């Protein structure tokens, strides 16, 4: 397993570099000018100086190489300096956001807590709800519980999150007045009153995303459980006198989780960028909203960095899913 993990990590390096190149080329060739919003009265020579200050004057291979060096060398050094108080990154140029006129990573770090609070919590809640529902629905196939769960799952997966979000705002904010319609990103939890306010403003966005995630994962869990419940090893376990609880929760569940792990693991990167629409609906100032803002303002360094971070997370959690296969099923061995 260790050899397999090391080999996959080594192979991930050229993969990520290729992904970075594709992202860089696509965004560089895309139409748009970060100086388009500047007044037309700015003289051409001043506009050219502004382009140089943004690093837009060099050849594409120079800019790509500088971005790779800043992302993989300078930014980790900044993190090390912040943790240990060293000065490895002192005087080195970082990836700068054209929109915020500050280092890209600093802006991303500021937005991550909001994303984890709302979207991360929604994903955890969705997984915790989906797995038991999938298990019970499969074990009690065609029961009332199964039919209700299937109906709710179809609605949750089919109805777009922006419609669900607006519907909840209309019901619980406009009509009933129970919950705030806009997420206050400036709120600091210092006492019980602010904690209650934080919980209230998280209920709707978390519920919308949790319903969507749980609907998808529960369907995978149910289908996988149904496939394993008819296998020969289940009949053998029952014939040996094992209790139904041991058969279902120890043997069937463990094998059924193998395909579900892929869905869950590859869904984790969506925590950081997949809830763009929901963040827009509830005005959550997270990474999804940051990506939309960067695209609208032609902030190429921000878009490139965020998109590449999402790609890194996908590759990383794909590897984690492969490792979990071997843990869940001893028959799987990596040479």
Spell out the blueprint of helices and strands.
Elements: H1 2-29, H2 44-53, H3 60-84, H4 104-139, H5 144-158, H6 161-175, H7 192-229, H8 232-239, H9 244-267, H10 270-273, H11 276-282, H12 287-296, H13 300-328
Helix pairs in contact: 1-13, 4-5, 4-7, 5-7, 6-7, 6-11, 7-9, 9-13, 11-12, 12-13
Polypeptide structure, described:
This protein has 335 residues and is mainly alpha-helical. The chain has a domain at 104-296: Orthogonal Bundle (MetI-like fold). It contains 13 helices and no strands. Helix 12 packs antiparallel against helix 13. The radius of gyration is 24 Å and the shape is globular. The N and C termini lie close together (8 Å). The model has no long low-confidence stretch (mean pLDDT 80).
Considering the chains and any ligands shown, give keywords for the structure.
335 residues; mainly alpha; MetI-like fold; single chain; 13 helices
Provide the CATH superfamily of the domain at 104-296: MetI-like
Q: How would you spell out the order of helices and strands?
A: HHHHHHHHHHHHH
**Unreliable residue runs:** none
- Rough outline: globular
CATH topology of the domain at 104-296: MetI-like fold
Number of helical segments with 4 or more residues = 13
**Residue-averaged pLDDT:** 80
Q: What structural category do the secondary elements indicate?
A: mainly alpha
Content of β-strand: under 5%
Termini gap: 8 Å
Major β-sheet profile: none
Total beta strand runs? 0
Question: What is shown here, in short?
Answer:
The chain is mostly helical. It is built from 13 helices and no strands.
